[in-house]
Design a protein that fits this description.
Strand order of the largest sheet: 1-3-5-4-2
Structural class: alpha+beta
CATH topology of the largest domain: BirA Bifunctional Protein, domain 2
Domain MobA/VirD2-like nuclease: 26-146
Protein name: Relaxase/mobilization nuclease-like protein
Number of helices: 14
Helix content: 55-70%
Region (Disordered): 402-430
Strand content: 5-15%
Number of strands: 10
InterPro entries: Endonuclease_MobA/VirD2 (IPR005094)
Low-confidence stretches: 404-430
Order of helices and strands: EHEHEHEEEEHHHHHEEEHHHHHH
Radius of gyration: 29 Å
Pfam families: Relaxase
Length: 430
């Protein structure tokens, strides 16, 4: 599992984030331990109230556990990993909350501990927790026999196209693929050895070199979106300055945006609007398909939960009725019969709980497989959009740089809108 963690405050914001149903297909609060409150927001507010008796500001420790995307990991494996992490970091016995998320056909978990020890009113110190989690992550991959990412096995082999949360959020606003965006900018950087070469490489892709607000270099696309080069290239500003020189003689972001806006003709704006409308139509169709699937899955899970709760109540009553009352109950206690019945009831209750968890896990795995098939279609649509966006950027870059005319939009339907043509029926007998 990939383990990412941070010490933080803001319990209310964290609870809202963990319970968001618009960003996740399914959300389940699996465990609340050591809290009086029975809901996530109340539990984190309780942790905040306890922290007010100390000087600690980052009173929560938030951890995400991400197994390989195609692996079906049971709840027990997540719980065992969390218990191991808890012991290794010195958080044993601290109040904690476990939340499961499912999105895009994969399942992962979040665990949040309160760092405040209520007995001593001191925060649990977490020295070198990132290094410890890195070692534990490798250990979990080896224990489960999963294929370990190259960057986890050796940090020197990390994927240069991995993106941060900030980069993902910016790409989401700009409606582009963050990995493709990073690859594009890194390609422009790798094929250039000077400022002029880099600026030309960017312009050929529809991006323009400009001076950032903090004296750094940025790239601006035709929509006016600004990309910090040091962030998207994963290169230190000093290395960028060594190749590109002083950014002071470059146009500012505002000037670049104004220049691009002045060259945007009505035909060019219509061309961009048509491309955006095409993508919006595809996205709407895929979103509707995803929402329909998720809603159906939620209903099935609620039905299973209701069936299991009803069955649990019925079985509990049946086990309780085995214990006789009155004088007969006293006789059973004297002879030891009631003790045997209680032991039998406890064993049956444990087996029933195991059965219910197995049923739930089987349903989750079935629905994850169904969701992965849909996600494959969504990724194909995204790849098509990435290719078309790159083509549009190049066309606009050529037009704005050279003043050439734009090609007419193709009238071929997209792969998502193609329908199978009817084959002519075979002629019948005369």
């Amino acid at each position: 599992m990939i383990l990412k963690a941070s010490q933080r405050a803001g319990g209310k914001q964290l609870a809202v984030h963990l319970l968001r149903m618009d960003e996740n297909d399914h959300v389940e609060v699996h465990e609340l331990r050591g809290f009086v409150a029975d809901d996530l927001n109340g539990a984190f507010h309780e942790a905040y109230a306890v922290s007010r008796g100390t000087k600690c500001r980052q009173f929560l420790f938030s951890l995400s556990l991400n197994p390989p995307e195609t692996e079906n990991v049971p709840v027990e494996a997540f719980e065992a990993a969390i218990d191991t992490i808890e012991e290794r970091l010195g958080l044993t016995g601290q109040p904690r909350a476990i939340v499961f998320h499912e999105k895009e056909g994969r399942r992962h978990a979040h665990c949040v501990w309160s760092r405040i020890d209520a007995q001593t009113m001191r925060a649990v110190h977490l020295p070198h927790f990132k290094r410890k989690l890195h070692d534990l992550s490798r250990q979990l991959y080896l224990e489960h026999g999963w294929r370990m990412p190259a960057g986890l096995a050796d940090s020197r082999n990390r994927d240069p196209l991995n993106f941060t949360r900030q980069e993902w959020q910016q790409a989401r606003r700009a409606k582009v693929d963050p990995k493709a965006q990073k690859a594009l900018l890194q390609e422009c950087w790798s094929v250039s050895d000077s400022r002029a070469a880099f600026a030309n490489a960017l312009a050929a892709k529809g991006y323009y070199l400009a001076q950032g607000d903090r004296r750094g270099f940025v790239a601006v696309d035709y929509k006016g979106e600004v990309y910090s080069l040091s962030r998207w290239l994963s290169i230190k500003p000093k290395e960028i300055a060594a190749r590109l020189g002083d950014p002071q003689d470059l146009p500012t972001v505002e000037r670049t945006r104004a220049d691009l806006a002045s060259r945007m003709t009505a035909k060019l704006r219509a061309h961009i609007a048509a491309a955006d409308a095409e993508f919006a139509e595809r996205k709407m169709a895929m979103d509707a398909k995803r929402l329909q699937l998720v809603q159906r899955q939620r209903v099935v899970r609620q039905d299973l939960k209701a069936v299991q709760e009803t069955r649990t109540i019925l079985e509990s009553r049946q086990r309780a009725n085995r214990l006789r009352k009155g004088l007969l109950g006293l006789w059973d206690w004297v002879t030891g019969r009631s003790k045997k019945i209680r032991e039998q009831n406890a064993q049956e209750a444990a087996l029933a709980g195991k059965r219910d968890r197995a049923e739930k896990q089987a349903l989750i795995e079935q629905q994850l497989a169904e969701r992965r098939r849909l996600q494959h279609e969504i990724r194909q649509a995204r790849r098509i959009h990435t290719v078309e966006t790159g083509r549009l950027n190049r066309e606009i870059g050529t037009y704005l740089t050279m003043g050439t005319s734009l090609p007419e939009p193709t009238m071929e339907p997209s792969p998502l809108r193609r329908t199978r043509r009817r084959q002519p029926s075979a002629p019948g007998p005369e």
